[in-house]
Amino acid sequence: MTRIWKCSGLRWDGGGPVLRWEGGARSALSWGKRVAFRVVEGGERRCVGARGNACPVGAGVAARGVGARCEECARLERAHSVAADTVADDPRPYRVYLAWFGPGLSKVGITAVERGSARLLEQGAVCFSWLGVGPLMAARRAEELLRAALGVPDRIPYAEKRAVRAALPPTEAERAAEPAELHARAVALDGWPESLAAQPFRPVDHVAAFGLATAPPAVAEVTELVPGGAVGGELVAAAGPDLHVATGGGGVVVLDTRLMRGWELVPAGGDAMSVPVRELRRAADHEQGGLF
Predict the structure, then answer these.
(1) How would you label 64-87 residue by residue, b for 16+ Cβ within 10 Å and e otherwise?
(2) Closest by Cα among 216, 264, 210, 286 to 41
(3) Under the phi-then-psi rule, with left for phi > 0, alpha for psi from -120 to 50, and beta for the rest, what region is 244?
(4) pTM of the model as a whole
(5) Nearest to 22 by CA among 41, 36, 46, 6
(6) What is the pLDDT of residues 37-62, one digit of tens each?
(7) Residue 260 DSSP label
(8) 197-198 and 127-134 beta bridge pairing
(9) CB 263 within 8 A of CB 39
(10) What is the layout of strands, in order, in the sheet containing 218-222?
């Protein structure tokens, strides 16, 4: 009997992408690895629950939603979340970071010191540098200061990240130029929290870790999975939750692995896509807006 797989998300462990499955199985991914699965025929996407607990009603969720949670479970998931700004008493030290995703696209954020750079890999940051380190609320104040004074957002849609990913400067020095300028402006701002220790600009480049230096540029992206639909091809790159999959004749297609959650999946053959895809949006002159 064919085993049913349920994806619980993509994580970056030890600098590489790893797909995790319900039940504890893990699939380490490497360039050249074959990615091939099919959604169970007649299946329906179901809410994945919240904070390790199953959805009490097994609610259906939209195929295009990346959260894979019903409204109630989404609320519960964010009820105790640093990212959602609902936690103010976390005693752990935090770092403020400046992340760059491509020309004209940067963001500011915070991450617990104990997590290292995992947060930046998970977000698909092409280049980043730490800005400061200190208590949570000081890190939050610095984050807000940069948003207000420099117009650097704390959230960027993945569609925009993908759009600029195909037009990256060829060298690390060129990729570090824009974040270096923003870093200098940030640490020079008046109102920098006294309890937050400023960090020097030391760029970390993820192009090699993501496989983007050698992968062909992506031409399309999966918009949703559908019952009976298949995904197949060779993994050539990955960034954040995105897998760049080379198909048999359709070029490289980006699959946001968050779209996999909530579906029942089985192994498949072939190297073609039979799920909805669309042409990948390009942004050559982007301007910053506030189973295998």
Answers:
(1) ebebbbbeebbebbbeeebeeeee
(2) 264
(3) beta
(4) 0.91
(5) 6
(6) 999 999 999 999 998 899 999 999 99
(7) G
(8) antiparallel
(9) yes
(10) 265-267, 34-39, 230-239, 242-246, 252-256, 218-222, 277-279
